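Re: your question about histidine kinase

S., sorry for the slow reply, the queue was backed up all week. Below is exactly what I fed in.
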Amino acid sequence: MIDRQSLAWQVGIRLAIIMLALTAIGLGWLVWHTSVIEAAHGPSNLVHAVIQEFFLDLAWGVPVFIALIILIGAWALRRALLPLRQASAAALAIGPDALHQRIPTARLPSEIRPLAEAANDAFDRVEKAYRAQQRFVANAAHELRTPIAVARAAVERLPESAEQRAVLADMVRLSHLASQLLELARLERPLPPSARLDAVPHLQEIACELAASSLNARDVRVALEAPNSVFVRADAERLIAIIRNLVENAVHHEPRGGEILIRLTSDGLMTVDDRGPGIPAGDEKRIFERFERGSWTKTSGSGLGLAIVKEACATIGATIRVENRASGGARFSVEFPLA
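Result:
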C-alpha cells in the first residue's frame, strides 16, 4: 500500500509533475519552431517527416524515461532515509526500562544530526532526573520505615479505644505504603539474570500467609488450585511481588466472609478471582497506573499494588490482563514465561 504522506511519494509526484511540464514545454517549443520554419520557408514535407519520425520513434520513450527517473529517485531517497528510520526505531525503544539507549547519529545526514544530538541530550537529562527520583523514593521509603515502626509500636501500647484503633489502622496503611514504595524502587533496578523457578511453593507460602492474616481481619478465605510444580523463567523477587500484590488486591476487594480463588496451570497461567465490585468498562488499563485508586472501590489501599505487578511482569516477560467475571467480581490473569 502506497503511503501518500511519505517523503518518497511526495518527491516522486513533484518529479513527475516537473518532468511532464518539461516535456510539454519541449513539445510546445517543437511545434512552435516548426510553425516558424513553415511561415518563413513555406510548408515542407521534410519538416513534417522529421516531426512524424520523432513522435513515432522517440516520443513514446518519454513516459518510460519519466517513470524510470521517478523509480530511481524514489529508491535513492528511501536508501538515503534508512538512517532516519533506524533512528526513529531507536527512539521508540527508549523507555523506563531502557533509559540508557540513545539515538545513533553516525549515519544521519548532517542536516538531521543536530536534532538527534539535541534529543539525546534531552534523554540524558531525563535519565538523570529519573534516577534521582528513584533514589529519592527508595531513600525516603527506607528512612520512613523505622519512625513508622516506632510510632506504630507506641500506638499499640495505648489503651484500646475507637481513636486508638483508627490511628493504628492509619499506621498500618502508612507502613504498607512505605513497604510498597521500597518494593517498587527495587523493581526498577537493573534486572538480575532470570532463573528457573518453581512458582508453586511461592504461591502456597503467600496464599497461606495472606489467608491467615485476612481471616483475623475480614474472614476472607483463600483457595488454591495448582499442580505439584510449575517452572517459570523469572527472578524470585519479582515473582513474589506479582503473586503477593495480586492476592492482596483480591483480599482487599473480596466481601467479608467471602473466598478468593487462585489457580495456576501447568502452562504458566495464574488467575486470581474475587467477588468484589469488578472493574468498570474503560478502566482496565488505568488501574495499573501508580497511585490509581478506582472511585468505585471503598478499600483504603495505596494504589501501588497493581502498578508493582505491572512493573514486575514487564521486566520478566510476563503478561497481565484483567476482566470481569460473569458471576461477579474481577479476574486477574498472569501468563508467566515457562522455563
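The longest strand covers residues 259-264. Residues 103 and 119 are 8 Å apart (CA to CA).

Happy to talk it through on Thursday.
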